[in-house]
Automatic annotation (TrEMBL):
<keyword id="KW-0869">Chloride channel</keyword>
<dbReference type="GO" id="GO:0004890">
    <property type="term" value="F:GABA-A receptor activity"/>
</dbReference>
<feature type="domain" description="Neurotransmitter-gated ion-channel ligand-binding">
    <location>
        <begin position="16"/>
        <end position="216"/>
    </location>
</feature>
<keyword id="KW-0325">Glycoprotein</keyword>
<keyword id="KW-0812">Transmembrane</keyword>
<keyword id="KW-0732">Signal</keyword>
<dbReference type="InterPro" id="IPR006028">
    <property type="entry name" value="GABAA/Glycine_rcpt"/>
</dbReference>
<dbReference type="GO" id="GO:0022851">
    <property type="term" value="F:GABA-gated chloride ion channel activity"/>
</dbReference>
<feature type="compositionally biased region" description="Polar residues">
    <location>
        <begin position="299"/>
        <end position="308"/>
    </location>
</feature>
<dbReference type="InterPro" id="IPR008100">
    <property type="entry name" value="GABAAp_rcpt"/>
</dbReference>
<protein>
    <recommendedName>
        <fullName>Gamma-aminobutyric acid receptor subunit pi</fullName>
    </recommendedName>
</protein>
<comment type="subunit">
    <text>Heteropentamer, formed by a combination of alpha (GABRA1-6), beta (GABRB1-3), gamma (GABRG1-3), delta (GABRD), epsilon (GABRE), rho (GABRR1-3), pi (GABRP) and theta (GABRQ) chains, each subunit exhibiting distinct physiological and pharmacological properties.</text>
</comment>
<dbReference type="InterPro" id="IPR036734">
    <property type="entry name" value="Neur_chan_lig-bd_sf"/>
</dbReference>
<keyword id="KW-0868">Chloride</keyword>
<dbReference type="InterPro" id="IPR018000">
    <property type="entry name" value="Neurotransmitter_ion_chnl_CS"/>
</dbReference>
<keyword id="KW-1133">Transmembrane helix</keyword>
<dbReference type="InterPro" id="IPR006201">
    <property type="entry name" value="Neur_channel"/>
</dbReference>
Amino acid sequence: MDGSVASTEEILPPTIQKLMKGYNKYLRPFFGNGPVTVGMSLDIASIDTISEINMDYTATIFLRQRWTDERLCFDGNKSLSLDGRLVELLWVPDTFIVDSKKSFLHDITVENRLIRIFPNGTVLYALRITTTVACSMDLTKYPMDRQTCTLQLESWGYNVKDVVFHWTRGNQSVSGLDHLQLAQYTLEDHYTSESEAVYETGNYPKLIFHFKLKRSILYFILETYVPSSALVVLSWVSFWISQSSVPAQCIGFINPNAANAYMYGQEMQEREDEMNGIVTSIGSRALRARKREEMLSRMGSTSNPTPSESKEDINSSQPQTRCTKCMSTARQIVRCLNCCKVENPHYIDNYSRLTFPLSFIFINLLYWTYYLYF
């Protein structure tokens, strides 16, 4: 490694060779004399995707960092722009993106990074990065939801005693948002903040870029709400179609006509009479068994029944009693069903012509009031 650095320094211009002489990239600027201040700014080139399934977004950004290194001061009034590959010769901040799932530095046709040194020792270091960052989303009001995502920058190894981060121009440090075109969102607001990340190993400098997104409802109105409303209106028309025109009914059920209702009632009445006959027969058998039991008890002194016969009578009466209760319950259920019978089914359509649209309007009022104002 030392041989490679030495050979690189030999081909550098005299001014750069002078700067690199005795320079140690492993020591930060102002080592032992307080922290080095690093100013940052962002240029958002694009926000490619925002995924609700993975709860993340993918963005391409230009990250610019500025700091002053007193060891790089030189005489002159013009800055020096160096090849990005010479960054290996200089100390640079160990900045990383918090919550990044995957990131990469663009390298076509060469690595997209820039180094510029000013006469007073200020260093400008710029990178072009594409990163996928986690974003916790609240989807309870989907598709009329609003999301707040962040892009957080921290120092990996230097704590606040060694490095201090700050936005170079406050909220104006982030640019490029005015030209963004997102598929399903519009950018409502954005702002920046500065804080410290507290870990077990110490406190580290932290910069946060916040941006608020609002989902565009027009797409869902055209794709979801309009077709659904059209289907509801079409189903409402069916209440004006004659009941005799069975093929014209386009809803999930067909009302029976008066003749069918009468036949249905007759059938239910026959079933009830049949059940009543079964119950009466069982009741008469139970009555005869009780009379026989009383007669045998009065004749007990002369002709006592055998234990086996008494046991059989008792066992036979118990199932009959349970069966009687079941039949009585079934008869009550049949009577309840007869009470629900519609005398004239034609009235159902008349009532539905009014209740159907009123119910739909009422549900829509509740739906849109909740999603738009709460």
